[in-house]
């Protein structure tokens, strides 16, 4: 008997099929807790999460270009019927016209980063410190390899709990704009671990990326509190070596808010919001560890920096931004 398609099956098909916006984080679309908006006579869908009086949209419409405007118009009407307001995050530059047509304000919120693996190298003086850090970590007896998630699931759960204690009292795991482990679609991800004598020391999960820059995205990365310095770098270098041997074209490092802010691009942008993003880069670590994330990504000298945007229904709004971070479990 053929299994009936679920909403997440349909979402998976859409993010594979409709890649014009080249959203490197597209696989977050079927995270647990997301909802999907569709129109009966249009292909594709919109991914969102209800938070308070907002519908927090993930990316733009995952749809053919000619359907994006109609999907957005339908979603705006859907929100109005429910007395809700839309704010969209991780909007790509190619997504912006569909939002602007509906009267949204589109501002840069941060950027995503990627390496073209055919050009990747850790040779030269620029990477000397990184090479040395990786070597020191490996000399502690770490073994690094790709593994099935189910074989390490129990230790991963224990490691995650220990890792969270290092983030301060009351810290909660981030979600929505970060990937997951486990579930039906774990088979689509790849997991590399560092272990010593059977004890899990750290891991990195990689999610697939489609579009014009296909490859893998460096997603969840966690380590035990007493892990040696360089363990994450050592795991990622091992994964890169495997990907390069397979002919993988790109390694993506994903989105970091408040980073690599350019001059405002789209008509109707909010200068005040642009200033606020620069302020949060300097002073917003309690909301999101942007500088720490950026420093890690910059170690790998990314060859591509892609601005990513936030789209407000109407004017830029601080309450709408707060609800984005509520969706992420950051506040």
How would you describe what is shown here?
The chain is α+β, with helices and mostly antiparallel strands. It has two domains: 7-112 and 257-286 and 305-327, 3-Layer(aba) Sandwich (Aminopeptidase), CATH 3.40.630; 115-253, Aminopeptidase (3-Layer(aba) Sandwich), CATH 3.40.630.30. The chain is 33% helix and 27% strand. The chain is built from nine helices and eleven strands. It has an eleven-stranded mixed sheet, with helices on both faces. Helix 2 links the parallel strand 3 and strand 4 (85-91). Helix 4 packs across helix 6. The longest helix has 17 residues, at 65-81. The chain is globular. The mean pLDDT is 94.
Please compute the radius of gyration using only Cα atoms: 20 Å
Rounded to the nearest angstrom, the distance between the terminal CA atoms is 45 Å
Question: With helices defined by DSSP (H or I, 4 residues minimum), what is the helix count?
Answer: 9
CATH topology of the largest domain: Aminopeptidase
Mean pLDDT, nearest integer? 94
Tell me the domain tally: 2
- Quickly give the structural class: alpha+beta
Strand content: 25-35%
Percent in helix: 25-40%
Across the major sheet, the strand order is: 1-2-3-4-11-5-10-9-8-7-6
> Can you tell me the residue ranges where pLDDT is under 50 for at least 5 consecutive residues?
none
Taking the sheet with the most strands, its summary is:
11 strands, mixed
How many DSSP-defined strands?
11
Order of helices and strands: HEEEHEHEHEHEEEHEHHEH
CATH top-level class of the largest domain: Alpha Beta
> Which CATH architecture of the largest domain is right?
3-Layer(aba) Sandwich
- Broad shape: globular
């Amino acid at each position: 008997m053929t299994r009936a398609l679920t909403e997440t099956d349909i979402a998976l098909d859409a993010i594979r099929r409709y890649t014009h916006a080249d959203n490197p984080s597209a696989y977050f679309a079927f995270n647990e807790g997301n909802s999907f908006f569709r129109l009966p006579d249009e292909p594709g869908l919109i991914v969102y999460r209800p938070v308070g009086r907002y519908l927090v949209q993930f990316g733009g419409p995952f749809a053919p270009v000619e359907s994006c405007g109609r999907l957005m118009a339908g979603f705006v009407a859907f929100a109005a019927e429910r007395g809700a307001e839309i704010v969209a995050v991780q909007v790509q530059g190619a997504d912006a016209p569909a939002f602007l047509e509906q009267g949204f304000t589109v501002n840069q919120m941060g950027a995503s980063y990627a390496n073209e693996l055919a050009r990747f190298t850790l040779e030269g003086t620029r990477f000397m410190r990184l090479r040395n850090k990786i070597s020191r970590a490996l000399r502690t007896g770490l073994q690094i390899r790709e593994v099935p998630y189910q074989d390490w699931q129990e230790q991963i759960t224990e490691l995650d709990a220990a890792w969270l204690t290092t983030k301060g009292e009351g810290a909660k795991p981030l979600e929505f704009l970060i990937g997951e482990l486990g579930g039906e679609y774990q088979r689509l991800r790849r997991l590399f671990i560092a272990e010593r004598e059977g004890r899990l020391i750290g891991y990195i999960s990689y999610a697939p990326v489609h579009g014009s820059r296909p490859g893998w995205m460096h997603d969840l990365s966690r380590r035990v509190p007493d892990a040696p310095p360089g363990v994450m770098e050592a795991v990622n270098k091992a994964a890169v070596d495997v990907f390069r041997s397979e002919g993988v074209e790109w390694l993506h490092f994903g989105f970091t808010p408040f980073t690599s802010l350019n001059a405002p691009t789209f008509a109707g942008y909010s200068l005040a919001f642009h200033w606020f993003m620069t302020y949060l880069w300097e002073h917003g670590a309690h909301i999101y560890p942007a500088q720490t994330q950026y420093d890690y990504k910059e170690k790998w000298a990314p060859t591509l920096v892609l601005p990513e945007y936030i789209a407000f229904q109407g004017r830029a709004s601080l309450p709408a931004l707060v609800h984005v971070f509520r969706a992420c479990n950051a506040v």
